[in-house]
Design a protein that fits this description.
By secondary structure, the protein is α+β, with helices and mostly antiparallel strands. Helix content is 31%, strand content 22%. The strands form six sheets. Strands 1, 2, 6, 7, 8, 9 and 20 form a seven-stranded mixed sheet that branches. Helix 1 runs parallel beside helix 4.
């Protein structure tokens, strides 16, 4: 076995450069911590730039939905809108307004945020192993493909989506095969040129009727009889969110490889249906397909608090709140449709749900945070993932600065810091607009 050829020392390491990881890294660096952000791909953004083009979760559902996420995530939205690279639109299913953006501009913005904050970014770099001392992850072995890197840290933040760091450190988790109705995977794509006026005149209801007829007639192999299409920041380009791949555990590389293949095959078939059956798409072609399949659920870390369905449905408030959510429980499982359960209120996400139960100085944020399947199905929206990332990064920096562990950190101090940076949670929800 080869020994590491390079050593890095950092206050805070963030694994995963998706939307939650960028927020964690920037928040920690702005608080004065030395931060290293590790990302396996060649760009920052994860799902937000490689799979999707819309942030959901910033507003509660409803015609006058109140804002439930502010802070650094809102700064991202404001800068995209100011650049003419984003606009706000209603959700197809009534689940609250979304922010549709140009993913390529967002990739640039993530780069700028990290560079300005002084974050050391390691792209094309993956985690190989973790050393745990006194129940704390203290060393990470990284690989760039050409060398091994020995990274030493005070605090680790896992924003990998799949809880890779937490898993290798020995943290307990609930996985894809632990629930009977695990979330499906989705390959997204865009098509152009689309006659968007003709498509709008035809309407969503008519499209779904054509979809049912096409499947029932046996002409197309389309597992999902619904889905959403929406305009993008480019004229004549429609984003298509319709595929559904089930029974493929994303923690298993062979299963995930099959899912990637199946997702792309479904995208081709849905595009054929749109060409043949939906006005406005007659001359359209696939112009982009997600860089990797979209994963909704894989591994959720068992934290010091397990956010439950009852918390989400009941609008729970917590003394250690650090973020909030209000999106419906949205379950994409086996079958042709999606289960939606609307809440009618907001709820808190507690700091304890970002803390691994049996390890200290290890925080998790984003899709791998501590929550049950149903609670996760509401709180996994990107706005909530970004808010959790900001909270985790802020907590990590405060812990390093104060010489305490993340578990011993004064929650009131963390909440004060987050509110200084315009985060929204707890009592703030009563006045947020």
């Amino acid at each position: 076995m080869r020994a590491p050829t390079r050593s890095i020392e950092t206050d805070v390491v963030v694994l995963g450069g998706g939307c939650s990881g960028v927020m964690a890294a920037v928040a920690a660096a702005r608080r004065g911590a030395a931060v290293t952000l590790v990302e396996r791909e060649g760009t920052l953004g994860g799902t937000s730039t490689g799979v999707l083009d819309t942030f959901y979760g910033f507003w509660a559902p409803g015609e006058r939905g109140r804002r439930v996420v502010g802070g650094l995530p809102s700064e991202v939205v404001d800068r995209l809108v100011a650049a003419g690279s984003a606009f706000v639109r209603p959700n197809t299913y009534g689940a609250g307004n979304g922010v549709t953006y140009n993913p390529e501009v967002l990739r640039w913005l993530y780069d700028e945020l990290c560079a300005t904050a002084g974050v050391r970014v390691l792209l094309h770099t993956s985690l190989t192993d973790v050393a745990v001392d006194n129940n704390r992850p203290t060393r990470l072995v990284l690989t760039s493909g050409s060398e091994l890197i020995d990274l030493r840290c005070a605090v680790a933040v896992d924003c990998s989506g799949d809880a890779v760091l937490a898993h290798l450190a020995g943290a307990a988790s609930e996985g894809y095969d632990d629930v009977p109705n695990a979330q499906a995977l989705t390959t997204t794509f865009s098509m152009a040129p689309v006659d968007q006026k003709a498509f709008a005149a035809f309407g969503r209801a008519a499209m779904l009727e054509r979809l049912a007829q096409a499947v029932d007639g046996g002409r197309y192999q389309l597992p999902r009889r619904e889905g959403s299409l929406h305009p993008t920041t480019a004229a004549g380009v429609e984003f298509v969110h319709m595929t559904r791949v089930v029974a493929r555990d994303p923690r298993d590389p062979e299963a995930l490889s099959l899912a990637e293949r199946e997702g792309r095959a479904q995208a081709i078939e849905y595009a054929r249906f749109l060409n043949d059956c939906v006005p406005g798409f007659e001359l359209a072609h696939i112009t982009w397909m997600s860089r990797r399949i979209g994963i909704r659920e894989s591994r959720r870390v068992r934290g010091r608090y397990w956010l439950e369905r009852a918390d989400v449905v009941g609008g729970a408030r917590f003394g250690d709140a650090i973020a909030s959510g209000a999106a419906p429980i949205e379950e994409h499982a086996n079958g042709a449709d999606t289960r939606w359960e609307f809440l009618g209120h907001a709820y808190d996400i507690p700091y304890r749900s970002l803390q691994a139960a049996e390890l200290d100085n290890l925080l998790v944020a984003g899709r791998c945070f501590s929550a049950s399947h149903d609670a996760h199905a509401s709180a996994r929206n990107m706005a909530q993932c970004m808010a959790m990332g900001q909270a985790a990064g802020t907590a990590a920096a405060l812990a390093v600065d104060g010489g305490v562990t993340t578990g011993a950190l004064d929650v009131a101090q963390l909440q004060t810091a987050l509110r200084e940076d315009h985060a929204i949670f707890g009592a703030d929800l009563e006045v947020a607009a």
